Structure formats: structure tokens, C-alpha cells
Amino acid sequence: MYPARFSYQAPHSLDEAIALLADNGEDAKVLAGGQSLIPLMKLRFASPSLLVDINNLNELGYHHQAPDGSLHVGALCRHVDLERSTLLKDAQPTMAAAAPVIADPIVRNRGTLVGSLCHADPQGDWAAVITALNGSVIARGPASNRAIPITEFVTGPFSNALAPGEIAVEAVVPPPRGVRKGGYLKLERRVGDFATVGTAVALELSNGMVTTAGIALTGVGGATINAEEAAKALIGGPLTPETIRQAADEAAGAARPRTDHRGSAEYKRHMVRVFVTRILNNAGEQA
Amino acid sequence: MTITVTDDDTPGVPLNRIAFTINGARKRAEVEPRLLLVHLVRRGLGLTGTHMGCDTTNCGACTLLVDGVPVKSCTMLAVQADNKDITTVEGLASQSELHPIQEGFTKEHGLQCGFCTPGMMLAATALLKDNLDPTEEDVRWALSGNLCRCTGYQNIVKSVLWAAEKLRAEKLREQQ
Predict the structure, then answer these.
(1) What average pLDDT does the structure give for chain A?
(2) Which of A50, A265, A279, B34 has the smallest C-beta neighbourhood within 10 Å, fewest atoms?
(3) Is the predicted pLDDT of residue A119 greater than 90, yes or no?
(4) Given this model, what pLDDT does residue B14 score?
(5) Per-residue pLDDT averaged across B113-136, rounded?
(6) How far apart are CA B27 and CA B40, in angstroms?
(7) Domain A179-286, CATH among 3.30.390.80, 3.10.150.10, 3.30.390.50, 3.30.56.10
(8) Phi/psi zone of residue A158: left (φ > 0), alpha (ψ -120 to 50 degrees), beta?
(9) How far is B140 from chain A (nearest CA, A)?
(10) A107 to chain B: which residues are within 8 Å by CB?
(11) pLDDT at position A285, please?
(12) A42 touches chain B (CB under 8 A)
């Protein structure tokens, strides 16, 4: 399979990349890891006339924690960098749990977190994780530099809020107000398959009390599901068997699964309940 | 010599010039941007040891090393190989000897039909460069992006462990 014909530019600065995108409007696409875009182009689901390859912009390959405690992930930070990150292991349990289960090891060598958010696949993993963490995406254009909350960034299946000429330069997770707990559990038929069910839970605890909670689901609806009611069941108190059960029930209720070759709707909903319970029980034991 | 690889004889199709190293040899090529790396390697350079399996980023048969990192070459553009150092299965053995990973595959019967083998060996080579003493679990993890439809995983894992042992022994001898 070949992509449709396109022109290719590999700029050496972000300004140059933005200028190329701005000059070419909606016909231009950014190529980062390419692990979703190139397959889409081969299937002719996407046929941009210009690809702006940002792989020379090594300055975007970072992930680091700012002095205020916020986490910044650059547009060229690859899944493998996050999988091997010592920073995430301690500071970001939900992200640390997700990184090793994205696609497969070889795809993780190329694919990027920010690219995955831009791709906005309803079965993608990172959008659920960043939603649970209440993160945002920084978009840069010729005259803009704005932070877009993830829930507004993903506007629907395979569509995002970037304006023509804008590039997503980084993802940001806000600083924690307490100790971070949580995890990501994914049910897949085999390594590299899309999530049958993916569940991201992110908590912040202070003196044993849950101060912030986010729960987001993937693979169980036409889009990433932000299970706000489930998260609310946890906020303001300690993790108890009762609050955990309530959150798990709410999350299962928020799921909109469909029966398909990966499993029945009932089974998927059940797995949401199981996964939320499992992650919260684990967080409670550590707390 | 510059290799030109294009399927398109439409006049005016833009070609990008790239320069890269493959299995130690410097090469120049003119490629259409939409040419996939696997096609540059197989058709442009005639290195047919790299196999094209699923063409959908699943099977890993087309895996090769780009700057030492395993990549599915059906999911990377040839034009992105500019300034890169590529290793294919043809680059593993020396003139006189097989690479330990190749030797492992022969000793432990690590292949049946052989289609997935080049990708398996390159993914395994990258693992052993990082970790000379992998557990069985480490090997399975590192190869989980490569599919074998003969389902000969058992012996593939054994082959990699065999190569790891040989490489450890070689290293120990060098140190003595």
C-alpha cells in the first residue's frame, strides 16, 4: 500500500515548521512518530498534500517536571522514553502504568504521546490517561500559543481542536496537590491490539484524603469517556471499600460499550468495574 | 551511485535526495516522499532479507534497525532515512561468521518457514545490546511486536537466550 502523493519537508526549527504549516493550511500535516499517520495515509484515510516532518526538532524530545511540579511532555517524546522514565515511575503512576502497554515495543520506539493525543483515536490509551490527569495540550501557531484542556482538545473521533497552521508542541499535566496514586489497566486480545477496555485512574491524596480524582475510559464508547461522576464519588474522603465500590459502579455506568468481536457489551462494562476496583484497591493499600 | 526509486512516471513528481548508511555502506538515493523504507531496502537496494508481511504495522517482519533502534520499515518513509544508519538482516553476519543471534536460531531451531525470522533477529539484537542477561520474560517482552505464524515462539525465545549466553561468554573472554 502506498500513500497518495505528497510533498515532504523536514524543517530544522519549530518556527520553520509553523511557517510551513501556516502557508499550507489544512492540506499540511505534522509527521512525528508516524505510527498512526502513515498507516492512515497508506489506507488513504488521510491524504495531506504536505507532510512536515518534525523528527529533526530534537529539542521537542523532552519530558520533565517543572519547578511547580507540572509535567511537560514534548511533541517528540516517544512512548519508549516514557516507558523507561525514572521520573514517571515515582511522580506519575498512571502514566508509568500506561507507557509499557501502548501498542508494541517496536511501535513504542517511534510513536509519541502528543501524536497519539492529536490522532484522537477513541480506542487510544493516552487520551484517557491525560483526561484522568486533567491535562492539556499546548498549541503553537504563527500568532498563537495556547493551552487547550484535553477534553476540549479532542473534539471527536480522529479530530482535534488544532487550527490550520497550529502544531501541538507539548502535553502538560498539572502539578499534584498531594501524593499521586493511580494506574492504567488495559484489556487487549494480544500485544499491539487496540484496547478492548482501557481504564485510567488518577488520584491525589493528602493525609489519607482524596483531594483530586480523575477516571477515564477508552474502548468502551465512540470517544474517550471522562467518568466525572465516578471520580466525584472519591473526592473529599479516604478510600474505603464503600467509595471504591461506588466509583466502580459509576464508571461502569458511564461506559457505552458495544458488543463486537472483542467481547460483549456486558463483559466490557463488567471489566470497567473490575479495573477501577483493582486500581483503587491497589492505591488504597499503598496509601 | 544514486539509486532512484519511484513507481510513478508522471512528469514532475518531486524526488527527494537522501544519503544514508546501510550495513556499513554509504548510499545515496532519490526517492519519492511516499516511498516506504521497506521498499527502498527491498527494491531499491535489492536487500530482500527484510520481509514485507502485513503492511499494517502489526507483524514486525519488516523490522530493521535505524540508528540501532528497531523500527517497522513499512511504517517509516524512505525519505526519513536521510542521515540515518540502517542495519538489515544482511548486515548481521561478518564475511566468515554468523552473528551469535543467527547462530542461536540455527542451534535452537528458531525458525520454521523463516518469514518472521529477520525481524525477530533484529529486534532481539537490539535487546541484547541493552541487556546481555535477559530473562525469558525480557525476551518475550522485547519480541512482542513480532508475530510468528508458525507459532514457533518457544524456540525463538530459546534462540535468543542461546545468543545471550554466547555473547556473555565472549565478553567474559575479552575481559580476561
Answers:
(1) 96
(2) A265
(3) yes
(4) 82
(5) 98
(6) 11
(7) 3.30.390.50
(8) left
(9) 11
(10) 57, 72, 75, 145
(11) 84
(12) yes
**Beta-carbon separation of B123 and A105 below 8 A:** yes
Domain spanning A61-173: CATH 3.40.30.10: no
Residues paired with residue B20 on neighbouring β-strands, in sequence order: B27
Is the Cβ of A84 closer than 8 Å to some Cβ of chain B? no
Determine the pLDDT at residue A1.
Answer: 84
Instruction: Count contacts between A and B (CB, < 8 Å).
Output: 83
A105/chain B closest Cα distance in angstroms: 6
Domains of chain B: 2-87 (3.10.20.30), 100-175 (1.10.150.120)
Segments making up each domain of chain A, as ranges? 7-53, 61-173, 179-286
CATH architecture of residue range(s) A7-53: 2-Layer Sandwich (3.30)
Cβ-contact A111, A98 below 8 angstroms:
no
Which positions in chain B have a beta carbon within 8 angstroms of at least one beta carbon in chain A? 7-8, 13-14, 16, 32-36, 55-58, 60, 63, 69-72, 75-77, 79-80, 82, 123, 141-146
Using CA atoms, how far residue B150 sits from A114, A136, A192, in Å, is: 36, 45, 19
Which SS3 state, helix, strand or coil, does residue A76 take? coil
The whole model's pTM is what? Answer: 0.96
Q: Does residue B1 register a pLDDT over 60? A: no
On chain A, the residues whose CB falls within 8 A of the CB of B72 are: 106-107, 110
